[in-house]
Amino acid sequence: MRSAVLRRAAVPALIAATLLTAAAPAAVASAAPGVAAPAPAACTITDASVTWGFKESFRSYISGSIAKGAWEPFGGVGYETPAFTWTGGAGAFDPATGTGSIAFPGGIRFTGHDGLLDTTVQNATLEISPGTGRVLLDLSGVSMEDVLAGDATVATTPQVPLVTLDLSALAVDASGDALSLTATDAATAITAEGYDAFGNYETGTAFDPLTLTASGTCAAPTPTAEETPEAAEPVVTSTPAAAESDDPPGSALPIALFASIGGALVAVIGGTTAAVVATKRKRAGA
Hints:
Blueprint: H1 2-29, E1 43-52, H2 56-63, E2 70-74, E3 78-80, E4 83-86, E5 90-94, E6 99-103, E7 107-112, E8 117-129, E9 131-142, H3 144-148, E10 155-167, E11 171-175, E12 178-190, H4 192-198, E13 206-218, H5 240-243, H6 252-285
Antiparallel strand pairs: 1-4, 1-5, 1-13, 2-7, 3-4, 5-6, 6-8, 7-8, 8-9, 9-10, 10-12, 11-12, 12-13
């Protein structure tokens, strides 16, 4: 009797296991790929300007009674006391990362000491990062020491990161497809690389504050599909009768499910019945 009861108790458990096994592929196959949020688009800067006095004490030295020199802006750079103005800047900016760069044409030539001092700064590039930045310049010239030694060879060092730029107050407006950047009187200071190339001021010495304005356009963001694992194909055993079935589309999985359950029930019931009959025969023989 105990053996028959145990076998009968196993029937519901086997049915449940069969149901779970058959239904699992359906659950996996039902997963659908999602769509990620639109990725922010990078922006193109089409117009930018910078107002920067470079270094007021250097200008005073050049124009004073010792150097008796001058400066000559060229290539679109202008000067109106007390600052130079770069215009026609162009570049790119990514609002998502807060990074970008803007390049400006033109430059300034500083001369003095009857030609012993001759330095040119040109092709300015503003590098922008979150909260900070740098001003890079092509530096060329002849040091007074070399000239006095009889060497008048002009040395050029491209894109020297001359000064750091405090952009903690940079205003960014990326509304729709329009972009604007504004930084007013951002502090600047000479870098170690600037000191090596320029040689007049120690690293960290403050230069004049810089004002930046820029505008441009941004491409419309496009949604990107999220990558999802491919669903495993359910293994379904087909029969000739199933191929000729008149069931509507989408009914194949329930039929396979019921077939699996039916097969399991037949096997279990058959085994249970045989066990019961065998037990009764033993009792009858006893």
